[in-house]
Amino acid sequence: MYNLTTPVELRRPALVHYGSGALAKLADWVAASGFKAPFVVADPINAVRLSLLGLGEVNCFGDVVPEPGSDNLEDAVSAAKGADVVIGFGGGSAMDLAKLVAVMVDQPVELSDISGANKAPARKVGLAQIPTTAGTGSEVGTRALVTDPETNSKVATESPYMLADIAIIDPDLTMTVPPHITAATGVDAMAHCVEAFTSKRSHPLIDDYALRGIQLVGRYLQRAVKNGNDAEARAGLSLAAFYGGICLGPVNTTAGHALSYPLGTQYKLPHGIANALIFPHVLAKNAEACAEQTAAIAQALGFRGGDSAEILAGATAFCKSLGLDMRLRAYGVKEDSLRAMAEEAHAIRRLLDWNPRELSVDDIEALYRQAY
Amino acid sequence: MYNLTTPVELRRPALVHYGSGALAKLADWVAASGFKAPFVVADPINAVRLSLLGLGEVNCFGDVVPEPGSDNLEDAVSAAKGADVVIGFGGGSAMDLAKLVAVMVDQPVELSDISGANKAPARKVGLAQIPTTAGTGSEVGTRALVTDPETNSKVATESPYMLADIAIIDPDLTMTVPPHITAATGVDAMAHCVEAFTSKRSHPLIDDYALRGIQLVGRYLQRAVKNGNDAEARAGLSLAAFYGGICLGPVNTTAGHALSYPLGTQYKLPHGIANALIFPHVLAKNAEACAEQTAAIAQALGFRGGDSAEILAGATAFCKSLGLDMRLRAYGVKEDSLRAMAEEAHAIRRLLDWNPRELSVDDIEALYRQAY
Fold this sequence. Notes:
The structure is a homodimer. Chain A has about 375 residues and is of the alpha/beta class. The first copy, chain A, has helices at about 25-30, 45, 70-80, 90-105, 110-115, 180-195, 205-225, 230-250, 255-265, 270-285, 290-300, 310-320, 340-345, 350, 360-370; strands spanning about 10, 15-20, 40, 60, 85-90, 115, 125-130, 145, 155-160, 165-170. Chain A is globular, with a radius of gyration of 20 Å.
């Protein structure tokens, strides 16, 4: 945990339009920037509402799949030929693909050339990001995850050239998200904040975003799950997701995400659900190592702090109040795979090394078993 | 006072390096960006420590004066010919001139062509901003003020092209700022936050920066005035100035700054001192119109809230504790000029229209008289 003098690098699109109706700014920006050939990367749900973008007839790759693979990316890059601005329009998958399309379109590179850190070529086209869920915060980041179909593992690509020129965060776009996805994506946003807030490399400057994001989720997530048309609640969650995205850059996540990933790769659980299932167990396990932060999290989410067992009960009840079944077994996870999952999670050192306490493979297996 | 759903435009350099030692990132960034001809805009105090920038021999215009006029700007633009990146290195004056130099260098425009909003041509060179005081927050903004020598009034120029590519906020650079300038610039940063926080167009998203900035000034300004080498305090104030700059973009200041400007134009009072002299009087006058915000400000600065008289006493004591003489008369202001100053201030509608309460010329004159 760093102090206020510790250097920190803050990257964010130079221009962010936030708020109800902000989407109207897109067409102005495209016109003012002189772009003539916009190209939209969207999932099927958003591909049918392209008219909202106000760009008239617009080229679109509308087949983004959840947890997209490199084949999905290749198709999008091919379709983008000749574009001068790429627009991500959807959840994290669409925005992650848009980042990669923007640096790969009409450039002689493959994903394998640019995966890892700082290997992408300079972007030659514009990039706008428009989230339609309140979760990943991908709109403000420089990182994209794509699944390698051969190894079934997530390939991370990160580059400052993948940072958007503009992010438009219009909570009205999230109004139609159904309750269970609202719950899952909201927990994902919260998890980004919670894990950055409790990380061994947490930074006071980022802590402000993290705690504010957690408070917003505490205040608004139950409201938005109950009533999807609650405009204030939707706005609060879009802001929480934005802040979660800010946390990811300089600090990033820890054990919560590390333990969630195997649920995605092995059982195709949606990222937000996986996070929610793991969240109470990691929070409780870490509680002693970061007591002050854990107490602040409990207060922000509206449950009583205390010892590890009380934290576990409070955080589990919070997730259940969102309508989530909190047992791994309810999602088809097999008990005899827990050990292998624990080994997979334990190997994600880039996250686990920053967890406030050391977790062995046995510790992780015990957490999975507790969640089972 | 807007709510969480209200649209807001957030502009900030896409890359901000903050923290002790962050200055070392400048040379890396210049090299990685491929710039070959950097040009520094600095005041004389910083022109003698160019070696800190790590750029070797570097072209520099080192004659930035306080409250610079258009002649000072013209000299800087001429000296910049052939530059491919402009670096502002100093306080608000140096950074404001750097913004203008960056859009004017080697372009066929005069200040009169571009003053006002959105008239500057697209910038063809890079722009980096490095504050050496913790006050103006100019490093993150799109606005520059230059004095017209004929009318003696401030000419504002604003353009998204004047936003820096990178801001490097290294509190170590502020360590040598003497106590009275530390106090004045710290109050300026606080005033940006306080006025945005109490503005009629305050926004919850910006309020977070504003309140945090005020808290940082409350916690650290007295410490930094007392001991300039207090690294944590210097860092806190640099962050407060950054947050104040964020407040200026979408919300901006109100009566405090409007009433301060005549002290600058008529009596050449430094901007921070002028702000401090006015601050308690406007805060107290506005107290009823924004009681909740005023109470939060009092708490953040460490004095007791209450009625208008208590606010006035508390805020005045806060400023006095920084070593500031809080009487206008102590700075050579003439009593018989107060009416004319009130008329000048009252005419600054772009700020006064957002003050939480209406202030007549008589009201303003009474505030000056109270401060006299």
